[in-house]
Amino acid sequence: MHDLKSVLFDTLSAGADKKIVLDVAALIDEAAQKLERLRS
Questions:
Q1: Contact 12, 21 (CB under 8 A)
Q2: C-alpha distance from residue 38 to each of 12, 13, 23, 30 (Å)
Q3: Measured distance CA(30)–CA(35) in Å, rounded
Q4: Distance in angstroms (rounded) separating the CA atoms of residues 39 and 8
Q5: Is the Cβ–Cβ distance between 20 and 12 less than 8 Å?
Q6: How far apart are CA 8 and CA 10, in angstroms?
Q7: pTM value > 0.90
């Protein structure tokens, strides 16, 4: 989790444009959906 936090901070704190922010949000959403399926 620490590595993920570091990568997100580095990627988004450098003045990321809207496309990068949306791409990151989509990746997080996809990962969350896959994790939810593991619990089912």
A1: yes
A2: 28, 31, 23, 13
A3: 9
A4: 25
A5: yes
A6: 5
A7: no
